[in-house]
Q: What sequence folds into this?
């Protein structure tokens, strides 16, 4: 059975991979971290588009992936339309900030959105924002440097950046005029939820997009009869099979995969230019 390709600029997409493994337990996944060309969120759109094209080419044309999950809000905004034109027969699933679910949940009508600068400045995000109910206020915050700090596992910097950005958006709470719902619009930020919750309080709802993306992936694969439901022979000791690949240093991905997914699969380095 061919694999499902998943990519992000770095370790953030592991938060989506975790949800994918839960809903598609007998699949093989190839995860590509584009750490050699990251972060995406403060780079120009052309860079993110070119990198997304190179990784999609590797996953589809070289590795024959049966579906592609763009586990990065920034890459989805910059490249998903182009990727769908290039590969019309391939199920391609992207991720975007969960504004609609947040609008349905919020009682105060004030919602915070943390995302990369590139995502917030994209036409795709502006369109999404414009389609939300007019009585809801979205307070957007470009979180420069936060994805990089999470990539490096730099706790001190994560703490100081989260403090700065949540203070800039606040106040948080359940009273009128307070933000009661916070959208994490970058897959990296899912790995800073503890720090963020400590700062804004446990009563604030945090929303990220991994689970809906995983469900959508499963639904699309079901439509084309491509879900792998059979247990492998001989039975696997681990339900999902996984390849962890990176275009950069292996250590951040190895550490993050172990810490967050309890995954010990050795990380391999690849060159997406040559596909080797
Ligand atoms: N994880 C990516 C996202 O969801 C962006 C991180 C980066 O800036 O590279 O937007």
A:
């Amino acid at each position: 059975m061919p694999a499902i390709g998943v990519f992000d600029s770095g370790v953030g997409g592991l938060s989506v991979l975790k949800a994918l493994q839960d809903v598609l337990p007998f699949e093989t996944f190839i995860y590509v971290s584009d750490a050699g060309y990251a972060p995406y969120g403060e780079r120009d759109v052309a860079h993110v588009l070119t990198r997304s094209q190179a990784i999609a080419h590797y996953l589809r044309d070289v590795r024959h992936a049966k579906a592609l999950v763009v586990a990065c809000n920034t890459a989805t905004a910059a490249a998903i339309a182009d990727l769908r034109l290039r590969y019309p027969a391939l199920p391609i699933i992207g991720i975007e900030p969960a504004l609609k679910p947040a609008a349905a949940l919020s009682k105060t009508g004030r919602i915070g959105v943390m995302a990369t600068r590139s995502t917030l400045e994209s036409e795709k995000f502006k369109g999404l924002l414009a389609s939300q109910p007019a009585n809801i206020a979205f307070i957007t915050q470009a979180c420069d440097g936060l994805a990089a700090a999470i990539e490096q596992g730099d706790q001190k910097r994560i703490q100081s950046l989260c403090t700065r950005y949540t203070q800039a958006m606040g106040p948080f709470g359940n009273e009128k005029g307070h933000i009661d719902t916070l959208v994490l619009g970058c897959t990296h930020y899912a790995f800073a939820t503890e720090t963020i919750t400590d700062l804004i309080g446990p009563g604030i709802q945090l929303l990220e997009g991994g689970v809906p993306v995983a469900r959508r992936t499963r639904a699309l694969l079901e439509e084309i009869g491509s879900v792998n439901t059979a247990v492998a022979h001989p039975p696997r000791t681990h339900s999902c099979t996984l390849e962890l690949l990176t275009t950069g240093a292996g250590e951040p991905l190895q550490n993050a995969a172990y810490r967050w997914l309890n995954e010990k699969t050795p990380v391999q380095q690849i060159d997406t230019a040559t596909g080797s």
